[in-house]
């Protein structure tokens, strides 16, 4: 296990950031409460140099401004595995912007690694075994046991060494510029997220295939669950699973006995919430037709056989390029990108490069052959 320092006071953080300010590269990871709590928060921030590891407790240190200043430096490379979530929660909860990122997951994807999880990569390149037993632990609890702190420190202790090896391989394969382009896009992403105004109950997997009268029930039972989850500050699925909510909407129980027989509904749930669940189901059933939720139908494109043919040809070319370059299909061009190319018919590389989401390295390496398919 790596040695580490646990930082719980502003003075600890100030001393740590002063020491880290002389570094050119640091590794970072976060542990959050979203799996267990209704109100998401950053519960631990792991920072490592090539030789030392620090664990910052944001529940004890409310003002992370010194860390934000450090991470905002353009000359400070921050190594993260699967950076998207870490960058988003740091931005959302602490206003922290990381200016220079090296994402080891993105690097592994560009190298077409068969396994891109951190445990697999550390095992392959550093010979380090990662125990995942605390992956879904409740990091909001205090005090954190030593075992969990040891686990957290291990997440970043070997990350810079892994980064160095991936950089060498990217340069050997002449894909370093690809990585730099992808890393650059990560910085702005947390601050450019589109606002999702869709009601939460419609975001449940399977909700959008329900009929309006079923959606009325789903909205009521979902609203009940959200209220309980918020009051108890527990993750909503821990109150009642999504599958149960959907089953209540599609096959409403007629009695408490039927509710108790439903898969996923425990005796404890019946004792504590049974009457309120039945009341929510009834409220949905009794809702007037004009108040039923109705989905906005997606825009229908007029069938274009030529478009379908172009898309097939583009996918065939992508398959060829994927095999030739030994890449994942999405690195050559994701399906959505191919659909946009087939629809907009760019006439040259400049027009291709102007398509939203198109990378420079995709245009340079694959663009000419994609255009031929049109």
Key phrases:
flat; DNA polymerase, domain 1; Nucleotidyltransferase, domain 5; alpha/beta; 374 residues; 18 helices; 3 domains
Written overview of the protein:
This protein has helices at residues 10-20, 65-71, 83-94, 104-110, 118-126, 146-157, 159-172, 176-188, 212-232, 236-239, 242-250, 256-260, 267-286, 305-325, 329-332, 335-344, 349-353, 360-372; strands at 5-7, 25-32, 42-48, 53-56, 77-80, 101-103. It has a 6-stranded mixed sheet, sandwiched between helices. With 374 residues, the protein is an alpha/beta fold. The chain is flat, with a radius of gyration of 25 Å. It folds into 3 domains: 5-191, Ribonuclease H-like superfamily/Ribonuclease H (Nucleotidyltransferase, domain 5, 2-Layer Sandwich); 200-291, HRDC domain (DNA polymerase, domain 1, Orthogonal Bundle), CATH 1.10.150; 305-372, HRDC domain (DNA polymerase, domain 1), CATH 1.10.150. Helix 14 crosses helix 16 (335-344). Helices cover 53% and strands 8% of the residues. The protein starts with a strand and ends with a helix. The mean pLDDT is 95. The chain contains 18 helices and 6 strands.
Quick structural overview:
This protein is an alpha/beta fold and 374 residues long. Helices cover 53% and strands 8% of the residues. It folds into three domains: 5-191, Ribonuclease H-like superfamily/Ribonuclease H (Nucleotidyltransferase, domain 5, 2-Layer Sandwich); 200-291, DNA polymerase, domain 1; 305-372, DNA polymerase, domain 1 (Orthogonal Bundle).
């Amino acid at each position: 296990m790596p040695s580490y320092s646990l930082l719980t006071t502003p003075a600890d953080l100030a001393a740590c950031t002063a020491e880290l300010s002389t570094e050119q590269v640091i590794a970072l990871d976060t542990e959050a409460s979203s799996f267990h709590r209704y109100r998401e928060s950053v519960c631990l921030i792991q920072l490592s140099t090539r030789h030392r590891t620090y664990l910052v407790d944001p529940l004890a240190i409310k003002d992370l401004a010194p860390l934000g200043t450090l991470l905002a430096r353009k000359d400070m490379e921050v190594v993260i595995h699967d950076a998207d979530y870490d960058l988003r929660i740091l931005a959302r909860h602490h206003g922290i912007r990381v200016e220079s990122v090296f994402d080891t997951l993105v690097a592994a994807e560009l190298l077409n690694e068969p396994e891109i999880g951190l445990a697999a990569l550390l095992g392959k390149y550093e010979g380090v075994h990662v125990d995942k037993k605390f992956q879904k632990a409740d990091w909001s609890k205090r005090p954190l046991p030593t075992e969990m702190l040891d686990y957290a420190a291990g997440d970043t202790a070997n990350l810079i060494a892994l980064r160095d090896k991936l950089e060498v391989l990217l340069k050997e394969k002449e894909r370093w510029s690809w990585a730099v382009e992808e890393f650059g896009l990560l910085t702005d992403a947390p601050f450019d997220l589109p606002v999702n105004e869709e009601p939460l109950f419609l975001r449940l997997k399977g909700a959008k295939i329900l009929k309006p009268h079923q959606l009325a029930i789903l909205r009521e039972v979902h609203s009940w669950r959200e209220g309980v989850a918020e009051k108890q500050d527990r993750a909503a699925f821990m109150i009642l699973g999504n599958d149960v909510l959907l089953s209540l909407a599609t096959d409403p129980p007629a009695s408490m006995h039927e509710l108790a027989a439903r898969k996923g509904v425990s005796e404890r749930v019946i004792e504590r919430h049974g009457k309120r669940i039945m009341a929510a189901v009834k409220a949905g059933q009794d809702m007037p037709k004009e108040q039923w939720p109705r989905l906005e139908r997606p825009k229908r494109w007029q069938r274009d056989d030529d478009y379908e043919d172009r898309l097939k040809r583009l996918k065939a070319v992508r398959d060829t390029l994927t095999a030739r370059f030994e890449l994942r299909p999405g690195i050559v061009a994701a399906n959505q990108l191919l659909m946009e190319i087939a629809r907009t018919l760019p006439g040259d590389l400049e027009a291709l490069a102007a398509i939203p989401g198109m990378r420079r390295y995709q245009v340079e390496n694959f663009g000419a052959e994609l255009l031929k398919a049109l």
